[in-house]
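Work Package 3 (structural annotation) set out to generate three-dimensional models for the target panel prioritized at the project kickoff. During this period the team completed the workflow that converts sequence records into discrete structure tokens, so that structures can be stored uniformly alongside our sequence database. As a representative example, we reproduce one entry of 434 residues exactly as it appears in the project archive.
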Amino acid sequence: MHTQKNFVEELRWRGLLQDMTPGTEEALAKNQLTGYIGFDPTADSLHIGSLIPIILLMHFHRYGHKPIALVGGATGLIGDPTGKSDERNLLDDKTLEANVQGIKNVLSRFLDFQDSAANAPILLNNADWISQFTFIDFVRDVGKRITVNYMMAKDSVKKRLTGEVGQGMSFTEFTYQLIQGYDFVHLYRKHNCTLQMGGSDQWGNMTTGTELLRRMLDEETEAHALTCPLVTKSDGTKFGKSEQGNIWLDADKTSVYRFYQFWLNVADQDAERFIKYYTFLSQETIEDLIAQHRETPHLRILQKALSEEITTLVHGADELQLAQRATDILFGKSTAEDLKSLSEKTLLDIFEGVPQAQIDRNDLQSDLIELLSDKTSFMSSRGEARRALKENAVSVNKNKVSEDFQASEDDLIAQKYLLLQRGKKNYFLVSIKD
């Protein structure tokens, strides 16, 4: 049950509203609208920066409106110049096709395109209509409607043309805003779509779309645009990346464990914003969590709630439990059986950066002191290994061991690994050569 009266109010309190054209809020409050957001296939998945527009569509749908997710199979061939200092490398057809399919797969996890309701989400690809245009048709029917002066006034174009950023702009990228604008015209004609939404960096392209719609159809045509802010960290650094690169929405690119850990480790100030952006928790619940967190920040209440909600949203409740179990293995009490329940990928993600050594399979039969020193160099000498064992400071797969311990095939995690440990935090991963 919504406590907010309308979609715009929901975005406003969450901090997800940046700009909108005059009359947008009134139109949204009065009628069920159809609105779209475009996703260009620059990769075969989307990352957490792209999750905000997806969540925007989900809120839009929850308030009874009809969302269109538009994959840019045509615009992806060109590349959006917005915010870019240099021309993008053009994608070949095979790569583009794979990227389009990958993005469709991601979007389908958040929006039910098989739904039969009146406001059911729609998934479209702009290549389906842009590819029908001949060059002459496009420049006559679309290019004629918008002046070069109008297009050059856009910040994204102006900065490139003046040399403020990059080395100018090709005609290819210059036409991008016209093609995006025509998407709006097509969606209006075919789906009665009157609203375009997206990140604040798209404002120039979006207003071109509303202008083109009026000039191609009728000055009185209803056309609206609404943007959300681009997500940044409180320290001013770029959001959506970790030391290992982008945080993706597909587990084969960013493991669920790493995804969960990313949110668990955000700064307090960021957590207060992100829990509004990235979850569907109510205003009352979020305000209560923020109050609790400020009283006891060391408990990281906000980060725990945020990481649980967003991991469940993106990967599901079962995967959340596995990520939490993996976290307990690294930071809490766990057993050899817990370790053996991990996949190889999750194990390597958990112990990324931990020193490693490879040994032959028959080296497992070495005595423990030799295994800890000569075979793996986990310890610098046999004497050091012997002293650590006498201090009861050595564990194999989280179990304390003594000098008479003999490793075997049964001890291997994922049939390939042994986890050595000295004290609480000194880990070492041994892998068996294939």
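The chain is about 45% helix and 10% strand.
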